[in-house]
Design brief:
Order of helices and strands: HEEEHHHHHHHEEEEHHEEEEEHHHHHH
Oligomer: single chain
CATH class of the largest domain: Alpha Beta
Number of strands: 12
Strand content: 5-15%
Radius of gyration: 25 Å
Length: 477
């Protein structure tokens, strides 16, 4: 299934910004109406609870709007606060780059020299550079650090300290591995080099200069409503699983469509600039071992090579993109998370419109996936009930046969239980070693988790009932 959330990661980076293609004012006005019509249809067809989006071009916001409702029943608008998850990495990279231009950091200096509390059990960690944190080539991997301990820390300093027992999965600079630990460490580096809390630094050096007055990190005054999870087609309000109050650098930014327009404009090399052109190009450029740059990736969308980053939390989803060739910028945000990520499909339609093409209206994939899972769960439950009710008849038919043959007969019914036992580890493997917990699997993956649990329980109960009846029949003979 395409774009399944459990195995989706925004990857790639690296185009030097090109001059934007001029557009007339009348064209921009026409586009705004067309974009609104498209986004309205997209919101309706995807059945998302809430959706906000912004399109920019030639240093201006072409269209910014919201659709649907939040968990409190309020209409979603261009001013509705949204969690943008891993889009936060592009903001963290910008914060680091401002310190580089101020002479307080250097991209190719060891992190440990500027951050004394950055220590790991692996001596190679002393070689990790600032650049390698940002382009995810540090060697740090979710599978080689205690990520659960780190994420439970009350501060960025505590997060970095929790990495102390960890090791590296590869020599720094030799392999790309996506890990939030890279950007949490980078955020702590901003705190130390910038002399203030990470969220305060972003506010003073990034948000305020750009006029992003509704954006924040770790600010209790800027708090979005609860998001939603889809449960077999029904949107259920849920509190976000992870606490972002300490203000981390990997996924803590809260913003809205209006502010994201200003962010896309500056990232397109237009409007107010926070760093020089060379620094901006460096953030967009790929590393030596992977297409991922510094908080941005390169990805082909509708045939166009874009700078892209997606963000997936447990109750919110977002994606941002820039077309260096045309100067268009796009951001799509939702207050929901399901097995299927609709934001990318909505983005694809917006990109098509910027190319003068008729966009395909997204939607239906999430609903189809969940309907299939629901039917599988119902079928498994029905087969389980049928297997229990007919256990006596089955036992009589197999009475007197060797236990080995009976056991082999049970194996197919035990497969769902085996799959359930391996479930977190399997998803972790599919996500390149990212940490996956049972609690996490009760959020956007809830339909799949429930289906596996139902199938496993049905199989186990059927096996146990049949074995009990089989032994009972054998003892009476």
């Amino acid at each position: 299934m395409k774009k399944m959330r459990l195995v989706t990661l925004a990857l790639g980076a690296g185009l030097v910004l090109a001059p934007a293609v001029p557009a007339s004012a009348s064209t921009a006005e026409l586009e705004s109406a067309a974009i609104d019509a498209y986004l309205t249809r997209a919101w309706e067809s995807t059945a998302l609870p809430g959706l906000s989006a912004v399109v920019t071009h030639q240093g201006k916001v072409v269209h910014a709007a919201g659709y649907g409702r939040d968990a409190a029943g309020k209409p979603v608008t261009e001013d509705t606060p949204m969690r943008v998850a891993s889009l936060s990495k592009s903001f963290t990279a910008m914060a680091v780059m401002t310190l580089v231009e101020d002479g307080k950091l250097a991209l190719d200096e060891p992190v440990a020299e500027r951050l004394p509390d950055f220590r790991m059990a692996d001596p190679r960690a002393k070689e990790i550079t600032v650049r390698q944190l940002l382009d995810q080539t540090s060697g740090i991997s979710d599978s080689t650090v205690d990520l659960r301990a780190a994420e439970s820390a009350p501060s960025l300093a505590g997060y970095v300290a929790a990495l102390g027992d960890g090791k590296l999965a590869a020599d720094p600079g030799t392999r790309w591995t996506y890990s939030n630990a890279n950007y949490e460490t980078a955020a702590r580096l901003v705190e130390v080099a910038g002399g203030r809390r990470f969220g305060d630094y972003l506010k003073e050096r990034v948000f305020e200069p750009l006029g992003m007055s509704a954006s924040a990190v770790g600010d209790p005054a800027v708090r979005p409503a609860d998001g939603f999870n889809s449960l077999f087609g029904v949107w259920v309000p849920r509190s976000e699983l992870r606490d972002f109050s300490y203000g981390g650098g990997s996924g803590s930014v809260v913003t809205n469509a209006r502010d994201m327009g200003k962010w896309l404009i500056t990232q397109s090399g237009q409007g107010k600039q926070l760093v020089g052109a060379e620094s901006l190009a460096a953030m967009h450029a790929p590393s030596k071992v992977h297409d991922y740059g510094m908080g941005w990736g390169r990805q082909s969308v509708n045939g166009a090579d874009l700078l892209v980053h997606a963000g997936n939390l447990f109750t919110y989803t977002a994606v941002e993109a820039i077309d260096p060739r045309t100067g268009y910028g796009f951001a799509v945000m939702t207050n929901s998370a399901g097995l299927y990520d609709d934001t990318y499909d909505v983005l694809t339609g917006l990109v098509a419109m910027s190319q003068g093409k008729t966009p395909e209206v997204p939607g239906g994939d999430r609903q189809l996936v969940e309907v299939i899972l629901g039917l599988v769960a119902l079928a498994a439950a029905g087969l389980g009930v049928l297997g229990v009710r007919r256990a006596g008849r089955w036992a009589a038919r197999w009475a007197g046969r060797p236990g080995r043959r009976v056991g082999l007969r049970m194996i197919p019914m035990l497969l769902p239980a085996v799959l359930l036992a391996l479930y977190p580890a399997t998803i972790s493997f599919l996500m390149n070693g990212r940490t996956v917990t049972w609690e996490q699997l009760t959020y956007h993956a809830a339909p799949l988790t429930i289906t596996l649990v139902v199938a496993a329980v049905a199989g186990l109960v059927t096996v146990l009932t049949r074995l009990r009846r089989w032994r009972s029949v054998g003892s009476t003979r």
